[in-house]
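Final paragraph of the annual report: two paired records, presented back to back.
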Amino acid sequence: MEYRDLGGSDGLRVSAIALGCWPFAGGDVWGEQEDADSIAAVRAALDEGINFFDTAEGYGRSEEVLGRGLKGRRGAAVVATKVSAGNLDPPELLRACERSLKALQTDYIDLYQIHWPNWDVPLEGTVGALERLQEQGKIRAYGVCNFAVRDLSEMVELGRCLSDQLPYSLAWRGIERAVLPLCRGNGIGVICYSPLAQGVLTGRYAHADEVPAGLARTRLYSQERPMSEHGEPGCEDVLFRAVAEIREIAAELGEPMAAVSLAWLRQQEGVTSLLVGARNAEEVRRNLPSLELRLSVEVIQRLARATEALKEALGESLDMWFAPSRMR
């Protein structure tokens, strides 16, 4: 297993693949999910050397299930969770942290992240509350999620922000324009969510109509799809032309499309870890071959060219789900 320092931190070394625990919540987006399968996924991840686990207070029962999965093995894990945008006022943030600690059945959180910016709450007060939690030993470090250039620049001025968690994949490359260079320049680790674009980069779908409703609500897909809230036409034709090219490149390499997609992302400068969701132990193990795969510069460039039109079609906004963007 490959491990990397998170944002240049002293002591927080995380696996290059992290287990994204949102699927543990089940529900409308992910469908029925058995706790036993989720717990087995956590333990299989630890057995395979994955030490980084990401959840959020906004992910239903995910924190609770992760806590149960880590019981007896908490010391082997780096646990990241998130405080919701509605709880960034300092008193609310402190209470939210206590709830997360209780749900996770732990005395400390390794990485406590602001889930989304809240432009109605002064960031200075939020950072002050995070610093207080750090002084108390309740969190080891803090970071942000979904902070684009303006908000991330303010965060850099106010505190020691270790990481920014953002959507990044071959199908969603918007952060390359400005946010990724900003992170590189300030030693901020990038944690990538939706690295397989919620399954489309696995090659399991031949066209847009095969993508389940809960997963086809992003701006990649038409506003006509169930649960969509972005009000945009989407770019389904451009997406699946890119998918066909990626599939062809993977076939030439004799590698699974998912492994090629993850390897491309893992080799991008500034990327620390990829959040890969898994709903059972077998799905955890299925993603491990990407860690052994190293792509040549030529292949990396071919994959980038294959998805350049998609990058342009999606425009400047980094928000996967809403328009106008909730990131600035």
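The closing record of the year follows.
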Amino acid sequence: MKIALIGYGKMGKAIESYAIQRGHEVVVKIDSRTLLKNTDLSQCEIAIEFTRPELAVDHMLHCISIGIPVVVGTTAWKERLSEVETAVLEQKGSVLYSSNFSIGVNLFFMINKELARLMAPYKEYKASIEETHHTQKIDAPSGTAVTIAEGILEENKNYTQWELTNDTNAIDQQDLAITANREDSVPGTHIVKYTSDIDTISFEHVAHNRDGFALGAVIAAEWLGNKKGLFTMHDVLKINL
């Protein structure tokens, strides 16, 4: 594949490395100093987008308008998802997005939903989510934490919404607490806990580096190919969530 990297920071460079290892060619690199609309993408077969929430949707809409499939790893833009859905449908576009491209994290999502279903009858256990990322991460909570929360809300009707908080004891019983920490050089850690007066059940995913995200994005691009529609990493891995 001939790939356009929209976003050429640390993640973009990691994606480039895996793309080359897997026999692909990066023909366009767009950093923060370059406007996508002023860039010639005619030689590109697919784009991979890791930028900022306020830019991601416009980047997707541009790629759809010129017929280039796009894989999107930027998070915190889903309030505009309907715009993307409409553009994909009307222009027969190709978009694949995910809050996290790591295979391990997507398996974690599946386990999380199953545990939420199992825990739903036991109201004495209070669920909570804790995420820790590097200090350069813009959004809080992370897109991965939000996906985890959405999975719990779907399977456990004891909770009506999630709330970002520093004090899990200070929120309403029906709210699902998310705590976000920022520390130097932490690729990403997510912990789900169910706590009662008697005991605590917890499980976590710890990313050791960016490699899982980068490799997953390249695998997603390979899968997307000439497909038309709006997809997620669940479609790539064929995980029935």
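The CA atoms of residues 4 and 47 lie 5 Å apart. This concludes the annual technical report; the extension proposal builds directly on these records.
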